[in-house]
Amino acid sequence: MPFLHLCSKIFTVGSKGNDQLKRAYGSYIIENLNFKGFKKITYKEAEEIGNKIIKLFKEEKFDVCKIFYNKFKNVITQIPQSQQIIPIESIEKNKEEKKSENFYEFEPEENEILDNLLPRNISTQIFKAFLENAASEQGSRMTAMDNATRNAGDLVDKLTITYNRSRQAAITKELIEIISGAESL
Question: How far apart are CA 47 and CA 41, in angstroms?
Fold first, then answer.
């Protein structure tokens, strides 16, 4: 599960991440949410976490919030990711970008729109991290099961060869006994 780093404060989601971080950074963990028993984590859970993060930010408990999760690349590869979600990092497209001289009127006001969109953006980024992490986990499980199946097949092949050699040795021994008995007559 992903975990959120709130500048020397850690907000963990899930028991595995919490267990790992508790050993070294237990004093920094401020909260752990565990969704055990949930078959599938939905946007609702991500929104719950996002609302808690926004509440902590409004209480000025932290300045920067980063989320850490595994990004799914393919079945074999998962890439650890770090993404800053508060404040939102701006992407510099072109330094010489011309400023638009157009004036736009917003209905409702700009601040009202941002107050509605920014919490959704945070929840969406958290939900994206959940989905990437889930895909990575399923890829890891699929690879592990494929390796286990392959190893079991190899073991069956080795046991079959060992069994056939034992059977051939027993048949050869019986034939030698029969031939030895026939020669003695």
Answer: 11
